[in-house]
Specification:
This protein has 632 residues and is of the alpha+beta class. Strand 7 and strand 8 form a beta hairpin. Helix 12 crosses helix 13 and helix 14 packs antiparallel against helix 15. The two termini are 24 Å apart.
């Protein structure tokens, strides 16, 4: 038969349509506004959830379906989105400090769709809103960290040159490095040996009591350079961490000398976002102190419930770590983090461990996170601020069995902790801690009324297209409309599966795609009518119309496709959002306009004995009848 698809092709198109409908369906289930309550060191319990809900009841905030998920995090859904911030403050004030309260959106996708891994597409900040952070780089801590690294380097250089000094090398409140010597001659020797290695620091000498002190201090120019480096390094690290969160089209940019703006559209887990964005995770490797170590040269930590003293001297820092990947130990089935070092770090570690076999080495994890604290003012208003929290702990203490090289592993971590640690190391270390100056959940930047107008314009345009196509092309127009809806479902399904973000410019791309999809059917139907008017039989005209119009459709769409790909490659923000939907729409419209439209036309007008076709005005049917009469 001339206009008949084989069975397998019809089944293929039906399967594509059904899958498109399934994976596009979650977009029609709007999430509920909610607050999320979690414990920073464990799972929530029923008593803690009741404490949170009681606080909401007391304040008159309506909620429903409070539950503790499988991950140990509580989710409380709210009736009114405008009460989210108030609910967060009320619960934050009631709960102890080791509980974290964050804003969230609770999905309403049916369970059967979730089992099929079907979820809604992401929406941009202009459509859905999201989280806005204003962060400030702590330059005081950045300076302290830089000078402490310098102290470690000076200590190693003096030890290598066998120059005696009075420990410890200290850092005073004015950020001066003070190195004390017994006499002026030893101090002069140290100055000559250290030479110009620390040229970016200002050197001076003072005498205090019996000590001959050599001082180093940062110059104003070096402080400015450190500030620029810290902000730029933190910007780069933040972009890597946000990419790990899977946020599409985020806004991360510098504001002023030491502040950074972060906007995350549609973020779901704000607590984890804050932790990963602000966390300063630094690994330090130390030898465990031996009995009789000098006072002031050791630091005590707790490891597995027992105290352990380590030498202050750092073997190697986190800056030497180039890679980290969490995995499961095949022998113990426990989580581990596989660490890879750069060449300098591998040499440092190898040099120390080669001569320290039988001794113990400790790995110290230093984390600086930010906690939201809500306080009630004298006038009764609630004010939430962010405060930095430093946590240092030993995560590994092990006996050195042999010299270590570029790769080794850290064990003894929980699964979630191993994943987060590897993520923080992999995305890069922050050059300096950052504090949250401002945090807010922002609404859609265009306003809900404008968004509704944009959506209504799409629906109005679609409705007018449907009326025009069916009114002009009759039954064939119905086939084109069905193909058009298949195109929309296919676009929504692909964007949901891939995780592309829909923005207002993206909606503009969809509107343009609708016009392109209809244009393809107009070309096909016009070609069919033209072939009929030229005397071709209806079955052959249908076949020729689709075959010959397809070349024209591809030719026209390829030129537009080239432009949209260029826009995607060089554009940013709104331009990229427009290019994404336009590119996808071009591809899906070519597929649906040809395959689905023809499948329906084949179903209605398939066969070789077709005498009429509803594809426009009656003049064409008259032309067909006149042509057949002439043949008889």
């Amino acid at each position: 038969m001339l206009n008949k698809y084989p069975l397998w092709k019809n089944i293929f198109l039906i399967v594509i349509a059904v899958l498109s409908a399934i994976y596009a369906a979650p977009n029609f289930y709007q999430p509920d506004p909610a607050i999320q309550v979690s414990h920073d060191n464990g799972a929530m319990d029923k008593a803690a959830l009741d404490m949170a809900t009681d606080a909401l009841k007391k304040d008159g905030i309506e909620f429903f379906d409070p539950e503790i998920g499988a991950n140990g995090v509580a989710l409380i859904r709210l009736r009114d989105k405008n009460l989210q911030s108030r609910a967060q403050q009320v619960v934050n004030l009631k709960m102890p400090q080791n509980y974290i309260v964050a804003l969230n959106l609770a999905p309403t996708t049916p369970a059967w769709l979730e089992k099929l891994h079907a979820g809604p597409m992401a929406y941009g900040l202009d459509l859905q809103g999201g989280v806005h952070f204003l962060m400030e780089v702590d330059m005081n801590e950045a300076t302290t960290k830089q000078l402490n690294d310098t102290i470690a380097s000076i200590r190693n250089d003096l030890r290598d040159e066998k120059i005696r000094y009075r420990p410890p090398i200290s850092l005073d409140q004015q950020k001066h490095i003070n190195i004390r010597f017994l006499d002026a001659a030893t101090r002069s020797t140290a100055i000559s040996k250290l030479g110009t290695k620390f040229a970016d620091l200002k050197m001076s000498t003072v005498e205090t009591g019996e000590d001959f002190v050599l001082q180093y201090a940062m110059t104003p120019a070096s402080i400015i350079e450190l500030q620029k480096y810290a902000v730029q390094q933190n910007l780069q690290t933040l972009r890597s961490r946000v990419n790990e969160l899977g946020v599409k089209e985020p806004k991360i940019q510098q504001m002023g000398a030491n502040r950074i703006i972060i906007e995350l559209p549609g973020i779901q887990d704000t607590t984890r976002a804050k932790d990963l964005i602000s966390a300063v995770a630094t690994l330090q490797f130390h030898l465990v102190a031996e009995p009789g170590a000098p006072a002031g040269s050791t630091v005590e930590y707790q490891y597995k419930g027992a105290p352990v003293k380590i030498n202050q001297d750092i073997i190697m820092g986190g800056s030497n770590v180039t890679g980290a990947q969490s995995s499961i130990d095949s022998q113990t089935s426990l989580p581990q983090v596989n660490i890879t070092l750069d060449a300098a770090g591998a040499k440092k570690l190898n040099d120390v461990t080669r001569v320290s076999i039988g001794k113990s080495m400790a790995i110290i994890l230093s984390e600086t996170k930010t906690r939201s604290v809500t306080r009630k003012q004298e006038d009764g208003t609630l004010v939430t601020t962010s405060e930095p929290v430093l946590n240092e702990r030993a995560i590994s203490v092990a006996t050195i069995q042999s010299a270590l090289g570029r790769q080794f592993r850290i064990t003894g971590l929980a699964s979630a902790e191993a994943n987060d640690l590897s993520l923080l190391i992999r995305s890069g270390a922050l050059a300096a801690p950052m504090h949250f100056v401002e945090e807010s959940t922002v609404g859609p930047s265009l306003g809900q009324e404008n968004i509704n107008n944009g959506i209504n314009s799409v629906l109005l345009g679609l409705g007018l297209l449907v009326v025009f196509i069916i009114g002009w092309y009759r039954i064939s127009g119905i086939a084109a409309v069905i193909a058009l809806f298949c195109n929309l479902l296919l676009m929504m399904a692909i964007m949901s599966i891939v995780g592309w973000t829909l923005t207002m410019p993206g909606i503009t791309g969809i509107v343009l795609t609708l016009g392109i999809a209809v244009d393809a059917n107009v070309l096909i139907f016009a070609r069919i009518r033209e072939e009929i008017e030229n005397g071709m039989s209806i079955p052959r005209a249908i076949n020729a119309g689709y075959e010959r119009a397809f070349v024209t459709i591809v030719d026209a769409n390829v030129t537009t496709l080239i432009v949209s790909v260029i826009l995607f490659a060089i554009g940013t923000g709104p331009v990229k959002g427009f290019a994404v939907t336009l590119t996808l729409g071009l591809l899906t419209s070519m597929f649906t306009a040809y395959m689905y439209s023809r499948a329906i036309i084949n179903l209605i007008y398939g066969g070789n004995n077709v005498k009429s076709i509803s594809i426009g005005t009656n003049i064409h049917l008259g032309t067909i009848a006149a042509h057949e009469a002439a043949q008889e």
